[in-house]
């Protein structure tokens, strides 16, 4: 995977991949495995999937202008990352922050 410039989402600063296709394929395989072995995966499968690496979250109203201005100054070469495994997590947002526990980890390509 290759990641380039950080961008601002509604609640986070993220690094989107330059090509989301491999992550979309992995996500679809994980969802299919969940549905084959347990029950329908939670969440809306028709909702747009935006794969990314999270850099920072916000949990309160804030002025985005300084963050956007800071991101506009970032000049860095794209970063290549080799993904070796995928983790299935139980995710929730309590206490005004994301929290998760790893349920299972599977090597990619195994």
As a percent range, the share of strand residues is: 25-35%
Supply Rg. 16 Å
Number of strands: 7
Q: Which structural class do the helices and strands define?
A: alpha+beta
Helix content: 10-25%
Principal-axis shape equals globular
What's the order of the H and E elements? Answer: EEEHEHEEE
Q: Would you mind describing this structure in some detail?
A:
Strands 2-3-4 form a three-stranded antiparallel sheet, covered by helices on one side. It is globular, with a radius of gyration of 16 Å. It has one domain. The protein is of the alpha+beta class and 110 residues long. The protein is built from two helices and seven strands, in the order E-E-E-H-E-H-E-E-E.
Produce the secondary structure layout.
Elements: E1 2-3, E2 7-8, E3 12-15, H1 21-37, E4 53-57, H2 65-72, E5 79-80, E6 85-94, E7 97-107
Antiparallel strand pairs: 1-5, 2-3, 3-4, 6-7
Considering the chains and any ligands shown, give keywords for the structure.
110 residues; alpha+beta; two-stranded antiparallel ribbon; 33% strand
Short description:
With 110 residues, this protein is an alpha+beta fold. It is built from two helices and seven strands; from the N terminus they run E-E-E-H-E-H-E-E-E. The longest helix has 17 residues, at 21-37.
């Amino acid at each position: 995977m290759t990641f380039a410039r950080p961008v601002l989402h509604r609640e986070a600063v993220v690094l989107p991949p330059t090509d989301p296709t491999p992550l979309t394929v992995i996500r679809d395989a994980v969802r299919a495995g969940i549905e084959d072995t347990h029950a329908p995966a939670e969440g809306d499968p028709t909702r747009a999937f935006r794969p990314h690496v999270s850099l920072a979250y916000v949990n309160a109203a804030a002025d985005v202008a300084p963050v956007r201005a800071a991101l506009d100054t970032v000049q860095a070469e794209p970063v290549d990352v080799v993904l070796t495994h995928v983790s299935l997590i139980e995710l929730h947002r309590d206490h005004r922050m994301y929290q998760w526990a790893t349920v299972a980890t599977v090597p990619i390509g195994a």
